Amino acid sequence: MTILDDNALGTSAATGSALTPSPSAVASPGTPAAPAPLSIAGALNAALRDALADDPSVVVFGEDVGPLGGVFRVTDALHATFGESRVWDSPLAESGIVGTAIGMAMYGLRPVIEMQFDAFSYPAFEQITSHLAKMRNRTRGRVSLPVVIRIPYAGGIGGVEHHSDSSEAYWTHTPGLTVVTPSNPADAYSMLREAIASDDPVIFLEPKSRYWSKDAVALPVRTAPMTRAQVLREGTDVTLIAYGPTVKTALEAATLGEAEGLSVEVVDLRSLSPFDDETVGASVRKTGRAAVIHEAAQFGGYGAEVAARVTERQFFHLQAPILRIAGFDVPFPSPQLEEHHLPTAERVLAALDTWEW
Amino acid sequence: MALASLVALLHDDIMNDDVAARAEPVRPTQKPIRLIDEKGVPVEGAERAGFVLPEPEMLLDLYRGMVLARRFDVQVTALTRQGRLATYPSAFGQEACEIGAVRSLGEQDWLFPTYRDSIALLTRGVPPEQILSSFRGDWHMGFDPYEHRISPQATPLATQALHAVGLATAAKLKGDDVVALTLLGDGATSEGDAHEAFNFASVWQAPVVFVVQNNGYAISVPFAKQSHARTLADRAIGYGMPGYFVDGNDVAAMHAVTSAAVQNARSGGGPTLIEGLTYRIESHTNSDDPTRYRSKDEVAHWKTLDPVARLETYLRASGALGDELRQEIADAAEELAGATRDAMNTNPVLDPLELFDHVYAAERPALREQRAFLERELAATVSTASVSSGSVSTASVSAEPGSTS
């Protein structure tokens, strides 16, 4: 692949410079670094950087992902390192971003594109559901679309209207898409690398309220395959099933529960589609009780799918109905009211108290 | 959203007077560009807009393409009425737009068609049974996109235009000499994706040619209710690209203008918007009743502007097309119609288990289970049918309906 000059994507003066990645500027993915504090945003940035360095067919584009480095700085410094022909700002149009990524993937590129904020992905709904998800099926497997759509999602950052939606149920209801969401920096790095390497289109949901959560991580890191759920905390009384932003909530509830003498197991789904029946099923068989936690509205939400699947498969192991601790069935509230909408650890424990133990 | 970058662009342009520095967009002509008039007589003067008639060999090739396409279209419409196809959107009357545009592409170039553009696929060499797979209903499409460099025919409007821009941009980034041409209808230009495609293509200077076939109606809605613009080609000015308003029933003009646009894209000149003014003689699809929204007089008028008859008159007058060659082409069209009939009169052999084969590249346990379920259901159906020796019963189901665990 040719690295073109600044004018690769237009005739007007482009900002930044088109640098061929130099060995000194690019972290070598082969050499593990010493564990250091790393945020989810930093891990995603490192994953993009390493993917761009490893594979010349990877390109990154979207709104403000260039010189600015993204509104959450997830694409920080990538434009300066890899140049205008690898990382660039697109016009402000989400359908256009997804639609052109589809054409690029048909021609052998692996686009990683950004929707900036959850509800801004809705103008691209048709391109995602009617084309991105279906192209392999329509063409009898002849056309693969290795596109990753990064969507910073969910609330908890005081965002105004349209900046805090949880849109996962729209995407998980669409055959052809893989939908994943990391909850910690190590997974953020590993899962994004895996998503970019996948030949299937991946909706990569980034829990924006956790962007700044840090762990000590040595890069490059490989965690479990992104389609597997992980038991983050062992327990014997109840399984809390969480993903993305609510994993932290579940872990907090487990700590609070422990103080009350409750042994709580926490499963981080990581992958919403496909669903890891095996890991979740094993946990529920062990504890006999399960509750699923998400920020999105409850009605018709992803928790309903989890509850139905687990009930169908584990009914005779269950001692109580599966609970859903979710957002209210209202449009995502204004910043000053969102604390009432978001599931908290206390709300999780209060829900568990409704069971007859 | 991305206000900061928008302001920066605007600021940059005003401060540096970039707007004046950019190439002056070509303003579409008031009257459509045409090279051969409706009586088959070559046009002289301003209406040609500087374009010249294609060489006689190319004109004969375009004629042959149009005759074959029309015969194919008539045959498929008949087969649809006989119930052999679920539906077929006819392009009768639009042959000049379709064939003129497609014949401007090189082997390495890509076509991004819509559901109405089956004859464009035919002209590019896709076998009839592969084109019609979708309309017969055996699979959503029947050809290999990479073999023919044609994207699946898009049903949602204008979405494929963005795919064309993306593919052309990828080719440009890789340094490949590839142009993408996409066909749109007049209704599609009302969709947001058409705007986004025009804008992205122009900003990125993608090697793309947009051909809008303005056939007067979006199903039943006439052009006057679709757009208040004088012409759709006028829109090109606002996107900073050349636009051409062409007589869409003049295949010579369609081919000359599209070829120039393809050449311009190939040489790094960016995208072009072409509007061909034409007419859909047939109904939208077989389930449409066009007598409810347009008059017999209107249809009769457009029949007098027939693109095939026009070129034939010209070619016969110029001596390029004699009786013998005309018959040879007519025979080839009959042969194509016969082959199409034969292909469509054979029932397709479908494997229901293929339903699960092309959803994901990576294997999914849930789909593996659902595949096994259908397999059991099919086995039970076959065994029931063989016992009763009657017709295959679909009522026979597995002993474990719904069981996937």
TrEMBL record, chain A:
Oxidoreductase found in the keyword field: yes
Gene3D superfamilies recorded: 3.40.50.920, 3.40.50.970
Source organism superkingdom: Bacteria
The keyword rRNA-binding belongs to this UniProt entry's keyword annotation: no
Ranges in coiled-coil conformation: none
Cofactor(s), names only, from the UniProt record: thiamine diphosphate
Residue ranges constituting the Transketolase-like pyrimidine-binding domain according to the UniProt record: 38-213
UniProt keyword annotations, A-Z: Oxidoreductase, Thiamine pyrophosphate
Pfam families, sorted: Transket_pyr, Transketolase_C
Name used for this protein in its record: Alpha-ketoacid dehydrogenase subunit beta
Species for this entry: Herbiconiux aconitum
From TrEMBL, chain B:
Lineage: superkingdom: Bacteria
Gene3D superfamilies in UniProt: 3.40.50.970
Low complexity: bias regions: 382-399
Cofactor(s) the protein needs: thiamine diphosphate
Coiled-coil intervals, chain numbering: none
Region (Disordered): 382-405
A UniProt-annotated Pfam family: E1_dh
Occurrences of domain Dehydrogenase E1 component (ranges): 64-335
Keyword terms, alphabetized: Oxidoreductase, Pyruvate, Thiamine pyrophosphate
PANTHER family xref list: 2-OXOISOVALERATE DEHYDROGENASE SUBUNIT ALPHA, MITOCHONDRIAL
Protein name: Pyruvate dehydrogenase (Acetyl-transferring) E1 component subunit alpha
